[in-house]
Amino acid sequence: MAGAAGLSLAALSGTSAAAAEAVSSDSKDVTKTLARYLVNARYEDLPENVRKEGVRTLLNYVGVAIGGSHHETVDIAVSALSPFSGPPQAGLFGRSERFDIMTAAFVNGVSSHIFDYDDTHLKTIIHPGGPVISAILALAEMKPVNGRDFLNALVLGVETECRIGNAVYPNHYDVGWHITGTAGVFGAAAAAGRLMGLTEQQMVWALGLAASQPVGLRESFGSMNKSFNPGRAAADGLFAAILASKNFTSSDGMIEAKRGWANTISTKQDYREITGELGQRYEAALNTYKPFACGIVLHPAIDAAIQLRDENKLTAAQVKSIDMKVNPLVLELTGKKTPKEGLEGKFSVYHAVAVALIEGAGGEKQFSDRAVRDPAIIALRGKVNPVIDPAIKPEQVEMSIALADGRVLTKRIEHAIGSLERPMSNADLERKFRDLADGIIPAQQIATVMERCWNVETLASAADIVAAGRKAA
Question: If exposure means fewest CB atoms within 10 Å of the residue's CB, which of 85, 315, 376, 409 is most exposed?
């Protein structure tokens, strides 16, 4: 499939002069062209590999949403919003509460992102599943949606947000926007609008109303506010589609107009990324899944640390120093030296490497309050010395561990596990799911919800997925 080969985390760097140049091409009728595609694209036209990746995206999303469902962030959101929620229309993964569909979409979106363990479109760093699936699963509990229609909408939503993200990345991201929120709202609106049967004109309006609700700034990273962004994008996109379904109007060119979304929030606008090869080139097929519960810029370093640990049976006591050559993005995004709580640990290369060497993992438990406050991990992170090397690509790392006995161990990572070049298998995704859901719902229920995700195309009702993933009252 076009564009699938050779893509990597290198797209994150955004350092080349060419990438920084503003591109404004094929800007005529972008919103209308996209809307026309969205209302006409059929499930039967989806290539088999795109359908399979859509199913994997769904399974990964449900696992991380269940896993995050009892984090303090979600507890606070549920407590704060319960008094204001409308009728109990939709359920929450891993919990017994039911909220109105927009509040449910928000809370599930927060839950799916709180561990930073969700899917990633590496070309843009968008986490596509949270905004889209949170919106359409909530909608599916209110109106009948079969599995084939659901999967088609999921793919179309992911395709929409990633294509729009491609058009403005990296400039939009570099200036400080959290692109999962700002592009994710389009994906949620497109997917929900498709399931609601919007006309072409109504879909134009839905996209326009989504454009009026960009949400998320990178300053929020390391706080609860980061997971607010995909949750809000899910609710806002659903909000936009519902309004458009009743003919609440917007401009017909809200994406591409002179004072529209792309020109307002970015100095780069490459509209070919949005409308080029629709139905032929699928960004949704390029989704990846995290083996580690943190931003992907940390994954090469964690991968290197775990490999060196396991190959040499290392203990913290043996380590004298840990030197690394890293891409500039690593310290820009994850340069916190002394994280005080689990969320901050996800933005600390020092913590990530130390905990990986000591515990041999980088899952949710390694980015907990317990882990960042562990005296042994704190001591070891003081020995981590990352050095910026612009020649190192974002998907690479060179690690050198000096031992007390004089030995020096080295490891270079070209592509970390979980990348397109080294993807997680279906079995890997199931292990991740079980680890996340363990202790929240029973083992048999875990098996049932995974089975429904894998077989979504055969379901008479997509709402069965939520029913299987909820906690008994």
Answer: 315
